[in-house]
Design a protein that fits this description.
Two copies of one chain form a homodimer.
Chain A (H helix, E strand, L loop, with lengths): L1 E8 L16 H13 L7 E2 L2 E2 L4 E10 L2 H8 L6 H12 L4 E8 L12 E9 L14 E2 L6 H9 L3 E4 L13 E11 L5 E7 L6 H13 L7 H8 L14 E7 L6 H12 L9 E2 L1
Parallel strand pairs in A: 3-12, 4-11, 6-7
Antiparallel strand pairs in A: 1-4, 1-5, 2-4, 6-10, 6-11, 8-9, 9-10
Helix pairs in contact in A: 1-3, 2-3, 4-5
């Protein structure tokens, strides 16, 4: 039996998603909490987007496989459905900066990583003193100069589509850096903060933060609007593109196709991504 | 010369607004930062709403009086207007959980406390596991049971208007507890979190949190919708009304009349509020 978990976390005090010995990671704490509640020695959780240290998530999705008997036993005499009882108990064990928001049986063919159609990230920047809100200082980057979002949107348009994003990715041996960037655009939220919406089938490592870094250079006038597109066509990662700070980045949503297409989607993604050797999640933006 | 400062702070690590020896307070840190930047021995700042320990502010307003020569000297050779130079320098001294968002010369007759027409607070509650967002956990109260906002709105209507709010206030010798509650209503924000909007000419101590406490009792079905109105008419503070946690409360906005009415408004408020002995700000909700 496969469970789908919807997660949210404040990345500030985590060394990212992926479990690492001796470090406080989302995967590490979540697997430990699940193992404790399910009374198992160990539990393995797979996520949709392996976020880096300091990156946040409001819409992370993960799955784990569990024997129905183990789940019922953990639920005990609770009158709630077993997955709901699990959610309450796991949240009782987890720290306040990591929450399971929903838990339920996943439909057949569901794989948090491989079935996903797209991931959506937001990058938030307060580019004037009156926009700096201490209540959201851990999720919004403060920038000392005003950004020209119109120029950034012009530059963004050249990046949308299926491209080799090598210029914006930390390379990984044997892995393709071709991705479909479905959406990249800037606007201001109700409070006036600049927000990038970045949506792709999948992301390579550092990709969102490098794209945002290139666009901020346009927004403050250091580069012209054609420059990020030139970098893309050049296809080489070098020091000219800055990877912006982690704390402005939040994984907002992961989208899956209708239930009857989950299996086919997972198989197609596996063919595309796995040749270089399986990993337990997609690099996180 | 009077300066108006617009402030925002994360109340989590502050013992409230009012300066107290040996405690980390908003007023204490702000006055120290201003004195340092203005090269004065001491500075006195007056605010619109003296928030309690743990209460946040996005729209706090304060004023201070300063000699024009002192301000220009502090601005030094900056090409920005002196108040802008002050804003940058003070923010450079202040910690990240306290920001000056705007600074400028106040119009004649302006008094951050006495000229204000009304104060608006928001109280935020996540009343289901899927609404709990770790990224805003310091400003949103988590509640274990779903709240019936419709019932809470029915109960709220009986409280709007000019009343003696003694049943919802921590009494203070010689001070009236009559206030004009201009607005009290519940809705859900885009994420589904329950938000109370509470707006009044002024608030007594603990008033917003006591009103919200009485309404939450209605929302979860422990009391009927008529109960908060009954408490109001009884006019006695007792243990039946709970003062809800500070961290769900944020001072969002302070409104002032048009410039040519500032002086008259301040004079009228002083007649109403000061007989019991002046304080350096209005109690904060």
């Amino acid at each position: 039996m496969r469970l789908r978990l919807d997660l949210a976390y404040d990345g500030t005090a985590f060394h990212g998603w992926a479990a690492q010995p001796g470090l406080r990671t989302v995967q590490g704490l979540l697997e430990a909490a699940l193992a404790q509640v399910l009374r198992l020695e160990a539990v393995t959780v797979t996520c949709a987007g392996r976020t880096d240290a300091g990156v946040h998530a409001r819409g992370q999705v993960a799955h784990l496989d569990v024997e129905p008997g183990v789940l019922s036993a953990a639920a005990g005499r609770s009158s709630a459905p077993p997955a709901q009882a699990l959610l309450r108990r796991v949240n009782g064990v987890l720290p306040a900066d990591l929450r399971v928001r929903r838990a339920g049986e996943a439909p057949a063919g569901f794989d948090a990583r491989f079935s996903a159609s797209w991931r959506r990230y937001a990058y938030r920047i307060a580019d004037a003193p009156e926009l700096v809100d201490p209540l959201v200082r851990h999720t919004v980057l403060t920038w000392p100069r005003r950004l020209d979002l119109e120029a950034m949107n012009r530059a963004s348009r050249a990046l949308v589509g299926e491209h080799d994003f090598a210029a914006f990715c930390r390379p990984r041996a044997g892995a393709t850096t071709v991705r479909s960037l479905l959406e990249l655009g800037w606007g201001r939220d109700d409070s006036g903060v600049a927000v990038a919406t970045v949506r792709a089938d999948a992301f390579c490592h550092h990709m969102v933060r490098a794209l945002v870094g290139a666009l901020v250079a346009v927004g403050e006038g250091r580069r012209d609007a054609g420059w990020p597109g030139e970098r893309l066509r050049r296809g080489v990662r070098d020091g000219a593109v800055t990877v912006l700070h982690a704390h402005g980045l939040t994984l907002e949503e992961v989208c899956y196709p209708p239930d009857d297409e989950l299996g086919a989607r997972a198989a197609a993604t596996r063919r595309l991504r796995v040749p270089a050797g399986g990993r337990d999640g997609e690099p996180g933006g």
